[in-house]
Amino acid sequence: MMKDIYKKLFKIVMPISFQYLMMSLVSASDAFMLGFLDKDSLSSVSLATQIAFVYSLFFGAFIGGCAVIAAQYWGKGDHKTVEEVLAVTMRYTLLVGLIFTIAAYFVPTAIMRIFTNDPILIEGGARYLKMVSVSYVIGGFAQVYFGILKICDRAGLSSLIGSLSVILNILLNACLIFGLWIFPKMGIEGAALATVIARVFETVFMIVLVALKKCTPLNLRKMFLPFACSKVLHKDYWHYTIPVLFNQLGWGGGVTMYSVIMGRLGSDAVAANAIASIVRSMVASFCWGIATGVGIILGQMLGRNELEDAKKAGGSFVRFSIAIGVISGVIILLITPILLKVVNLEGTAHLYLKIMMFYASYYIIGNSLNSTIISGIFPSGGDTKFGMWCDIITLWVVVVPMGMIAAFVLKLPVLVVAFILTLDEFVKIPVVYHHYMKYKWVRNITR
Q1: Phi-psi region for residue 412, left (φ > 0), alpha (ψ -120 to 50) or beta?
Q2: Do 173 and 194 touch, CB atoms closer than 8 A?
Q3: pLDDT band, very low/low/confident/very high, at 268 (cuts 50, 70, 90)
Q4: How far apart (Å, rounded) are the C-alpha atoms in residues 276 and 354?
Q5: For residues 425 and 106, what is the distance between their CA atoms, to the nearest angstrom?
Q6: HEC-encoded secondary structure of the chain
Q7: pLDDT tier at 247, thresholds 50, 70, 90
Q8: C-alpha distances out from residue 363 to 139, 197, 383, 409, Å
Q9: Does the first or last residue of the chain, that is N or C, have fewer Cβ atoms within 10 Å of its Cβ?
Q10: What are the residues whose beta carbons fall under 8 Å from the beta carbon of 12, sequence distance 6 or more?
């Protein structure tokens, strides 16, 4: 039985992980290409992209709530309810995306002041935000469909579209940043415009697929008119989505605070941290893919009332996530010497990057375990509240205050501050595993 489950898991995980990897490559290409311009361009854009990260927390929560319900209803065979969940998810994702677009276009300078007090970084980041602003509301549409395609056993199609978009984005990055071929040399604004065009491509592709009936249709009436949806389903959606949203905002806000702290420790720290984070994200793509795939598979099993089988599968997935985390850490250590030779950083920034890559190598082990349990196993059975409290307390009560005290009160060295900011995954492991063993997540939540 477990052999069949893992076969299905890898069928879901491989395209999802590839898509996550390709998305990370966009950030990597931005950093790599802007690094050839100058360190300030790299640093300003790395800070400005935190806005896209914050937006991703919102649509990630909406899609996460969708996954909790839709995976079980899909496993049950109730596809009409899945369509209704899609409409509800799309409504709130586009609404929040519009708010981010308006803010980034009209007050980009004020937004950048949140992350840094360096006038050069503020000016460069503001130019990027103004140009990239429309991508938020456009990209939200495709992101919801990426999520629903994975739930409905079409992860390969989701990966294909996302990967083509990434390739287009990287090619346009090169053309628009440096002015290759017939394109103008736009620098920072070129990286932003490439992102916008890629998001338009994804959205058009999805609309064509919906028109050809290749994926779950979007009921516009239920999307625009809340009263057209089932009140019970709407209540269920928010019951599971609100904890995911607070979890996302609590965790993401804490991670954003890491950028705020590092952003006030100098451009060397910002540049090194940006590159280390990108590499860690690329290597962690498989870990995140496993978490997503685990959530989908267990959700479908629980929706079919295969409770004992889901419980056994969960234990196997936990052990598997630890092994994947260790392998990922070794990969980071192996690529570090190559990265140090390729990246255009010198002196202090070069030293920072070397040590931060070592931090990333052990951080990813805890990240792999926790993401599988908190983002995959628990939500599969509707247990979304624990992850919320766990991440909020770990980050906002322990790690972020410690980091701020170390950086701004004790004025400890940059590398000491960076080390403190890697402690969050390990602080929560004992509590996470204890909660897992209670098996509160083993339940069918369909009506």
Answers
A1: beta
A2: yes
A3: confident
A4: 9
A5: 36
A6: CHHHHHHHHHHHHHHHHHHHHHHHHHHHHHHHHHHHHCHHHHHHHHHHCHHHHHHHHHHHHHHHHHHHHHHHHHHHCCHHHHHHHHHHHHHHHHHHHHHHHHHHHHCHHHHHHHHCCCHHHHHHHHHHHHHHCHHHHHHHHHHHHHHHHHHCCCHHHHHHHHHHHHHHHHHHHHHHHHCCCCCCCCCHHHHHHHHHHHHHHHHHHHHHHHHCCCCCCCCHHHHHCHHHCCHHHHHHHHHHHHHHHHHHHHHHHHHHHHHHHHHCCCHHHHHHHHHHHHHHHHHCHHHHHHHHHHHHHHHHHHHCCCHHHHHHHHHHHHHHHHHHHHHHHHHHHHHHHHHHHHCCCCHHHHHHHHHHHHHHHHHHHHHHHHHHHHHHHHHHCCCCHHHHHHHHHHHHHHHHHHHHHHHHHCCCCHHHHHHHCCCHHHHCHHHHHHHHCCCCCCCCCCC
A7: confident
A8: 30, 34, 25, 25
A9: N
A10: 150, 153, 155, 292, 293, 296, 297
Residue type at 197? I
Residue 114, CA distances (Å) to 106, 273, 442 in order: 15, 18, 42
Position of tokens 């990813």?
364
Q: How many angstroms separate the first and last alpha carbons of the chain? A: 27
Query: Rounded CA gap, 70 and 84, in Å?
Result: 9
Name the token pair of 279: 């590499």
How far is the C-alpha of 339 from the C-alpha of 341, rounded, in Å? Answer: 5
Both tokens assigned to 45: 């854009």
Asked if residue 27 has pLDDT above 70, the reply is no
What does the block give as tokens for 425?
Answer: 């995954």
For the chain, percent of residues with pLDDT exceeding 90: 38
